[in-house]
Amino acid sequence: MAKRTVDDDRVSMAPLAIIAIVLIVAVGVGIWALSRKSESTEQFASEHRIAAGEASEGREAPLEVRDEAAPRQSSDARTLAQRFQAGEIHSVRLIGDSITRGFGTDNYVDGNETEDARIIYDDGNGEVYAETPASVTCWANAFRRYAEEHGVQDFVNAGINGSFMNRLADHPDAWLQSGADVVFVALGTNDAGYYDTEAFRDAARKGIAAAAERSKTVVVLSPVSDLRPVSQLVEPAGDLGDVLKEICDEGGYTFVDTRNAVTPEMFCVDGLHPNSQGSLAIWKCIKEALGL
After folding, report:
1. Which of 114, 125, 174, 180 could join 93 in a cystine, given CB atoms 3.0 to 4.6 angstroms apart?
2. Within this chain, do residues 57 and 82 fall inside the same structural domain, yes or no?
3. Is residue 70 part of a domain?
4. Distance from C-alpha of 220 to C-alpha of 238, rounded to nearest angstrom
5. Distance between CA 151 and CA 179 in Å, rounded?
6. What is the structure's pLDDT at 111?
7. pLDDT value at position 198?
8. Among 45, 65, 85, residue at a domain's last position
9. Residue 235 placed within a domain
10. pLDDT at 223
11. What was the pLDDT predicted at 154?
12. What is the pLDDT at residue 91?
């Protein structure tokens, strides 16, 4: 009778033993899975630390995979400002016309260049121009002061009265000379009276490309919208600004829109040249656009 009771007890305990074994196996599998997950997580974190420059000595970071469809940053105005702030820009050259030169602003006098003034253009055929004095109250000289305060050692205002974009396109060596870290191109005001958009586009593409070959950064300014009657122009200066923006978008150059920088009361009586107030308004527009 006792033997039967023990056997019966063994039979009744069997399901419990099976359940216990199943639970033990399940717990073991769970622990193993958690361990594998932890290892995988640590490996993932380690790889990302390596990519961020936290790799341990002697271990190479994985190659960075870029999304080719993502937009790429070209000549960044913020980055240019940071370079000025860090004192990394040592030379600046402005390529422009009479507005860049300072015609119509305070202290400007035709032919007031000193004997030792820097030569800003020399085509080797007798066409030679010297730099306007730093005392002229124009946007270029306001920029000069900012640049020198930020470590620029070579600042050139290569503005030439009456210049067209094709001067830069056809004679880049004479005008750009050895180039600069940053070249500003401010042309188009005179072109508006003589060239249509297609002729201007051809010259601008060639001229701006030449500037890019001789600099690390090119900044292109639109012509200012002046007060000349449209009937006197082949193309409105504002339209040429659109052409320049297109070229900058294509080539990755920085474009600064100064078309609305100067209000009517800021022009000289000719309605074309900004006075000192208008010229300094151009500088304010450039500073805000570039974050200087």
Report:
1. 180
2. no
3. no
4. 14
5. 18
6. 81
7. 96
8. 65
9. yes
10. 97
11. 97
12. 98
| pLDDT, tens digit (0-9, with 9 covering 90-100), for 247-285 | 999 999 999 999 999 999 999 999 999 999 999 999 999
Q: What is the pLDDT of residue 47?
A: 38
Range of 284's domain? 77-290
Distance CA 280, CA 138 (A): 6
The answer on 261 and 176 residing in a single domain is: yes
Distance, CA of 97 to CA of 188 (rounded, Å): 9
Which residues sit opposite 185 in a β-bridge?
95, 220
> Which CATH number goes with the domain that contains 210?
3.40.50.1110
Token representation of residue 195: 């060239």
Out of 16, 38, 65, a domain closes at 65
Identify whether the C-beta of residue 174 lies closer than 8 Å to the C-beta of residue 144.
no
Two tokens at 139? 């946007």
Fill in the DSSP letter of residue 266.
G
184/248 Cα distance (integer angstroms): 12
Buried b (16+ CB within 10 A) or exposed e, 40-68: eeeeeeeeeeeeeeeeeeeeeeeeeeeee
Question: Which of 125, 143, 126 is CA-nearest to residue 134?
Answer: 143
Q: Which is nearest to 199 in space by CA: 160, 240, 233, 228?
A: 240
Residue type, 106: D
Total count of domains within the chain: 2
Q: Position 28: which residue type?
A: G
DSSP three-state, residue 226: coil
Instruction: Look up residue 167 and give its two tokens.
Output: 């001067």
Q: Are residues 158 and 275 in the same domain?
A: yes
Give ∠ CA 133-258-128 in degrees, rounded to 5: 35
Alpha carbon 273 to its chain centroid, in Å, reads 28
Same domain, 161 and 57: no
Q: Does residue 284 belong to any structural domain of this protein?
A: yes
Low-confidence ranges of the chain (pLDDT < 70): 1-78
Chain-centre distance of CA 123, in angstroms? 31
SS3 94: strand
